[in-house]
Design brief:
- This protein has a single domain, classed as Ammonium transporter fold (Orthogonal Bundle), CATH 1.10.3430.10.
- The chain has 444 residues and is mostly helical.
- About 2% of the residues have low confidence.
- Helix 2 packs antiparallel against helix 3.
- The chain starts with 5 loop residues before the first helix and ends in an 18-residue tail after the last helix.
Length: 444
């Protein structure tokens, strides 16, 4: 009988974690549905399914060709005597990608789920007013170009990953679980969608008031949070193995940090809302929970549990205030809180990686992070990555979606919004045996 090798064990462990990742998408779909209106609940779940489908097929056709994997073919330019890798040069349709369980193939499998997760994030921001076909077209843009380009820079050996080797900035831009590549990119796309669609009908009255439009099902939201935890455990562990050279034995620390960050964020959000409103708010607590998971993804393998608690607590506090600030001050109507949870929470996680990340010494016998030291320049590498997201990815995704909106309008008609997207676009409601709420209580 052949004894399994370490490479075989790593492949099996990585596959197990990859198979957990779709639960993050399932959790996010339930959260978005629960925070939206009852007359659009089936529509947002249908949009989640079609978004995952479009993202997978488009990434298969084009996305992996632009993203690639470290060590694969790429296009580069030379600046100041240094070579900078800016985009992959893999064949489209997974040609020449051997289905042999290699890291490159496992990465492609994980990315099929990751790009779908990133594309699902804007669905919560566009809830109750975003046409189904328009969301599919927007997903195609994200999966074909926006996501693969930035993912290559971070995970495919691109120029952000090269900041360490070329300029001595730590280990280069650090994002083992996709806090920036998936979450911030998806959150910035969500911000673009809210700007393009505008607020929901009746959200902002003529006198400047912004009446609350409560989500219709807190049970879906809270159950979605539990599913999301399982998905994030898989995402963070698989990302560490594939993109940071981690070993399966380190998954226990990653899981611990992920759980603690989410727990700290949820309790912080519950405490703050209890102090401010007299009772804890379920939707904000759920958003805090997810924000903690998002923030944990950047450096979950390179911090100790106490630092994960700090990262999660800050994420939970920031989100509770950021959601209100965006809604009331900037009039960003974001029913799912996607901009605050994924964009702001992810940005904080990336910066926290520069503050707290510590890397193992070369002693292969040691698996402890506590005796490690931070890499010089890591903070600056994280700042450069954050600046790239805000200064390049946001204008890019907004511009592409703005152009597409000019060709094929994103927003449903006034009658369709009043009727509800379930009946207007799908022809049947999610709750046919119950009366769904209309907009009669909203100001005109």
């Amino acid at each position: 009988m052949t004894t399994p090798t370490l490479a075989d064990l790593s492949t099996v462990a990585c596959l197990f974690f990859i198979f957990l990742t779709p639960l993050a998408a399932a959790g996010l779909a339930l959260i978005n549905a629960g925070l939206g209106r009852s007359h659009s609940a089936a529509h947002i779940l249908m949009a989640s399914l079609t978004t995952l489908s479009v993202a997978a097929l488009v990434y298969f056709a084009f996305g992996f060709g632009w993203e690639g994997f470290t060590g694969g073919p790429f296009h580069a330019f030379t600046l100041s005597g240094k070579q900078w890798n800016w985009i992959a040069a893999e064949p489209f349709f997974f040609r020449k990608l051997a289905a042999d369980g290699s890291p490159a193939y496992l990465s492609a499998l994980l990315q099929v789920f990751c790009v779908g997760l990133a594309a699902m994030i804007p669905l919560g921001s566009g809830a109750d007013r975003w046409r189904l076909r328009a969301s599919c077209l927007s997903t195609a843009i994200l999966a074909a170009w926006t996501y693969p380009l930035f993912a290559h820079w971070v995970w495919g050996g691109g120029w952000l990953a090269q900041l360490g080797a070329n300029y001595g900035l730590g280990r280069g831009f650090l994002d083992v679980g996709g806090a920036g590549t998936i979450q911030v990119l998806g959150g910035l796309t969500a911000l673009s969608i809210t700007w393009i669609l505008g607020p929901r009908r009746g959200k902002y009255s003529a006198d400047g008031m912004a009446p609350a439009i409560p989500g219709h099902n807190a049970v879906l939201v809270l159950f979605g949070c539990m599913l999301a935890l399982l998905g994030w455990l898989g995402l963070n562990c698989a990302g560490t193995i594939l993109f940071a050279g981690g070993e399966p034995a380190g998954s226990a620390l990653i899981a611990m940090n992920t759980i603690l960050a989410g727990a700290a964020a949820a309790l912080t959000a519950a405490f703050i809302t209890n102090v401010r409103f007299g009772k804890p708010d379920a939707s904000l607590t759920a958003n805090g929970w997810v924000a903690g998971l998002v923030a944990s993804s950047a450096a979950c393998a390179f911090v100790v549990p106490a630092e994960a608690v700090v990262i999660g607590s800050v994420a939970g506090a920031v989100v509770t205030f950021c959601i209100e600030w965006l809604e009331l001050k900037l009039e960003v109507d974001d029913p799912g809180g996607a901009v605050s949870v994924h964009a702001i929470g992810g940005l904080w996680g990336l910066l926290a990686a520069g503050l707290f990340a510590r890397f193992p010494s070369m002693d292969a016998a040691s698996h402890s992070v506590s005796n490690s030291a931070g890499a010089p320049g890591q903070w600056l590498a994280q700042v450069i990555g954050v600046a790239t997201l805000v200064g390049f990815v946001l204008p890019l995704t907004y511009g592409l979606n703005w152009l597409l909106n000019r060709i094929y309008p994103y927003r449903v008609s006034i009658e369709g919004e009043r009727q509800g997207l379930d009946l207007h676009e799908l022809g049947a409601g999610a709750y046919p045996e119950f009366i769904t709420h209309t907009e009669d209580f909203l100001p005109r």
